[in-house]
Specification:
By secondary structure, chain A is an all-alpha fold. In chain A, 35% of the residues lie in helices and 0% in strands. Classes of the chains: A mainly alpha, B mainly beta. Chain B: One of its GO terms (molecular function) is enzyme-substrate adaptor activity.
Chain lengths: 117, 457
């Protein structure tokens, strides 16, 4: 990779020659991650992220789901994960308290010198 | 080819910097640190002449700035950009069938070339593309027979003479009106729109499909790429960006989350599932880690103005590809290689999924992209020199030359350097744009728009 003396890449190359043989920074980071989350999938960062990406978007619920979940909650506490953390609605049915407020009025952008709310 | 060198660097000394000296010009947006989500800038785009600069935000609003006419006497700097028009492009919607909220965030804005007095642009959120007409009104009819000037109707019995209404000048009013709404064609989230060089059609791309539209027709579109597998469990990659070739109306490219780019020719077949060219850099399998695929995901693809090259942005680098060579890029520039030893924490705070864009200058000699800590980087393809600059209100005076920044990757930090651990990963520059003809750049921080120009002596 071309780069003059100012180029950031030189720092990395210098580091590389000082690394223990066979341990790249990326691998070291991977080891760190696996140590923290041993249950992390064997497959390298692939389809979990893709499914998450495809399902991006605030999911709501219908009253049937809600009442079922309320009935279950009498027996055990459901984890209150934020909606983005879950891949599918699955176990966690959002409750009205979990949902962000719908936006009210639409004001002029501050880039155009709009009012500060 | 001999590398270009500028006369300026010969006389003033190379000094380690680029040939161009960038100066602060303007900053738009609120000063306060408490950023409302709606104010997060999500796209920035100059029009074909560079006279207009459009921004889109998370609140679904578009703000267009216009460059004022150059002051011939004061040739210190080029015209300033002032607000020209602002409108609400998209509003939050709700898909009741899928129980999903549709964000109003503007993902992309693309300008049409100007054909008449009005300006046209396409803006899109996750699901719907809209064609907006922006027109000026500087005259209004006055002297109606049956109406007073304030609009009240006159008593017809009081009318004794007739007159012909005439147009009189009025204060300039800029109106934006939606002329076409292209809806209900995308199951997944739209990431790109691109206008064809025929100026009649355009493409829209979501995670799994690409559609071709005619600008006049809103009730149908043609599906030209479909990578959805029959069984969704077999899904291994998604479409991340797509663009039409600037000159060949039959050619477009799309990039993937696996770091590949496919070039398709619409003359080959109606459904371009089979690519004409596949651009992919071979990976050394011994280097593979959990992060490899994530950081190879291409967040942006842009053709050069010439159409000979295309540029891709992945998490750590910018690559220039020659369309005639599929097996590797011709140039690779490291944006922030020091982050490679921070991938674990960048994965934990989701920054590893940030989608940075990239852009070419008008002559295709310099490319630019954003980074963290409100830094942005430029790479000169001819001199092979690069520079890191910061978008900050600290360099607020017009014509102040920006000081180059340096990140210290390890150990001994020199004076004026910033260490990797001090970088603010919440201050990310995802969107940048370069004026098509001049050295004027627009750089978006989270909620502010900076305009920089090169020093004019």
């Amino acid at each position: 990779v071309a780069g003059g003396p100012e180029c950031d890449v030189c720092y990395w190359l210098v580091e590389d020659t000082q690394e223990k043989e066979g341990i790249l920074p990326e691998r070291a980071e991977e080891a760190k991650l696996k140590a923290k989350y041993p249950s992390l999938g064997q497959k390298p960062g692939g389809s979990d992220f893709l499914m998450k990406r495809l399902q991006k978007g605030q999911k709501y619920f219908d009253s049937g789901d809600y009442n079922m979940a309320k009935a279950k909650m009498k027996n055990k506490q459901l984890p209150s994960a934020g909606p983005d953390k879950s891949l599918v609605t699955g176990d966690h049915i959002p409750t009205p308290q979990d949902l962000p407020q719908r936006k009210s009025s639409l004001v002029t952008s501050k880039l155009a010198g709009g009012q500060v709310e | 080819m001999f590398p270009k060198f500028s006369l300026r660097s010969m006389f003033h000394g190379a000094g380690g910097g680029n040939d161009i000296q960038w100066c602060f010009s303007q900053v738009k947006g609120a000063v306060d640190d408490d950023v409302a989500e709606a104010d997060i800038i999500s796209t920035v785009e100059f029009n074909h002449s560079g006279e207009l600069l459009a921004t889109g935000d998370k609140g679904g609003r578009v703000v267009i700035f216009q460059q004022e006419q150059e002051n011939k006497i004061q040739s210190h700097s080029r015209g300033e950009y002032n607000v020209y028009s602002t409108f609400q492009s998209h509003e939050p919607e709700f898909d009741y069938l899928k129980s999903l909220e549709i964000e109003e965030k503007i993902n992309k804005i693309r300008w049409l070339p100007q054909k008449n007095a009005a300006q046209f642009l396409l803006s899109t959120n996750d699901k719907t593309i809209k064609l907006w007409k922006i027109s000026e009104r500087d005259k209004r009819p006055e002297g109606y027979n049956l109406k007073e000037e304030d609009g009240r109707y006159r008593d017809p019995t009081t009318v004794t003479t007739l007159r012909v209404p005439v147009f009189r000048p009025m204060d300039l009013m800029v109106e934006a009106s939606p002329r076409r709404i292209f809806a209900n064609a995308h199951t997944y989230h739209i990431n790109s729109i691109s206008i064809n060089s025929d100026y009649e059609t355009y493409l829209s791309a979501d995670d799994l499909r690409i559609n071709l539209w005619h600008l006049e027709i809103t009730d149908r579109s043609f599906n030209i790429v479909d990578i959805k597998p029959a069984n969704m469990e077999e899904l291994t990659e998604v479409i991340t960006a797509a663009e039409f070739h600037p000159n060949s109306c039959n050619t477009f490219v799309y990039s993937s989350s696996k770091g590949t780019i496919r070039l398709c020719d619409m003359r080959a077949s109606a459904l371009c599932d089979r690519h004409s060219k596949l651009f992919e850099e071979p990976e050394d399998p011994s280097n593979r880690s959990f992060f490899s695929e994530i950081i190879s995901s291409i967040s942006d693809v842009k053709f050069s103005h010439s159409g000979r090259y295309m540029m891709t942005r992945d998490y750590l680098s910018v690559k220039i590809w020659d369309l005639n060579m599929e097996n590797r890029p011709v140039e690779t520039y490291q944006v922030h290689e020091y982050l490679r030893s921070k991938l674990c924490s960048l994965y934990e705070n989701d920054c590893i999924f940030d989608k940075f864009e990239c852009c070419w200058n008008g002559s295709d000699s310099v490319v630019m992209t954003g980074s963290y800590n409100n830094f942005f980087r430029m790479f000169d393809r001819n001199t092979k020199r690069d520079i890191t600059l910061e978008a900050s209100r600290e360099n607020n005076k017009p014509r102040t030359v920006l000081k180059p920044r340096k990140v210290c990757a390890s150990g001994k930090r020199k004076k004026d350097e910033i260490s990797v651990d001090s970088l603010d990963f919440n201050k990310k520059i995802l969107h940048t744009a370069w004026h098509p003809k001049e050295n004027i750049i627009a750089v978006a921080t989270t909620n502010n728009l900076y305009i920089f120009q090169d020093k004019v002596n």
